[in-house]
Design goal:
This protein is mainly α and 237 residues long. The protein is built from 13 helices and four strands. It has helices at residues 18-28, 30-34, 45-54, 64-88, 92-98, 103-107, 113-125, 127-142, 148-164, 168-179, 181-185, 195-210, 217-228; strands spanning 2-3, 8-9, 38-41, 59-62.
């Protein structure tokens, strides 16, 4: 658990899931939980239900970096399906475009000339993957909306388009975003993300590699607080 204002680890535990987050909220106490204003989460069902149960006044924001990961995973699933079909049909030109060495160009957000050329070829060679690419790009444009009302309209249109696409991975994603639409739109009320947590995770991984691992889990948790939390003597408490 990370305090977004202090940018420090305030609690950690050996494990994950709803039961672990429940422990944090119980230790925090009802009064402190009532003062939590907003929580950024990756959208896991257990995390959402735990926060809703304990931090009832908190605004839950579905982290848009994880939203992007959902989109990329769905797109990559379509790419793999079409690549297998192209190889089965001996379609060498399409196989070359969909090969794994082109994967990062397809997945990147940056609109480079090379990506534009690949997308132009896809529009001719494979309509299904081209449609999946358009759905991915259109969803990310939702975050460019000026206000929540506009974002809500754009999200509704995207969900309808995803459900009508008949692409299984995007139909599933459309249903998921429909169930979690309020958490997606909460970003326009409180623009917080889990970016700080992801950065701290990288510090923790580096700490573990530097020590060549830790045999004592409790000692490792303490070292995390010392390096990334309020136990750091260089930080004011």
């Amino acid at each position: 658990m990370v305090d977004l204002e202090k940018r420090k680890v305030i609690w950690n535990h050996n494990g994950r899931g709803k039961y672990v987050l429940d422990k944090f909220y119980r230790r925090l106490g009802r009064k402190n939980c009532d003062h939590i204003q907003a929580v950024a989460s990756d959208g896991a069902r257990g995390f959402l239900s735990s926060t809703q149960a304990f931090a009832k006044n908190a605004l839950i924001v579905l982290d848009h970096f994880h939203v992007k990961k959902y989109l990329l995973d769905a797109l990559d699933k379509v790419r793999k399906e079409e690549l297998r079909r192209a190889r089965k049909e001996n379609n060498d030109e399409l196989s070359q475009v969909l090969h794994c060495n082109q994967r990062f160009i397809l997945m990147q957000s940056k609109k480079s000339k090379k990506k534009h050329d690949i997308l132009a070829r896809l529009a001719i060679l494979n309509e299904r993957l081209d449609q999946a690419m358009l759905l991915k790009e259109q969803f990310m444009d939702i975050y460019q909306a000026e206000d929540q009302k506009t974002a809500q309209t754009n999200l509704k249109e995207w969900i309808i388009a995803a459900l009508k696409s008949n692409i299984p991975s995007f139909v599933e994603l459309g249903n998921k975003f429909f169930r979690k639409r309020h958490f997606v739109l909460n970003y326009f009320v409180c623009k917080i993300t889990t970016a700080i947590s992801e950065g701290i995770n990288n510090k923790i991984k580096r700490l573990s590699r530097t020590a060549y691992g830790f045999r004592d889990v409790h000692y490792f948790l303490l070292k995390i607080h010392q390096r990334c939390g309020l136990l750091n003597p260089r930080c004011s408490t």
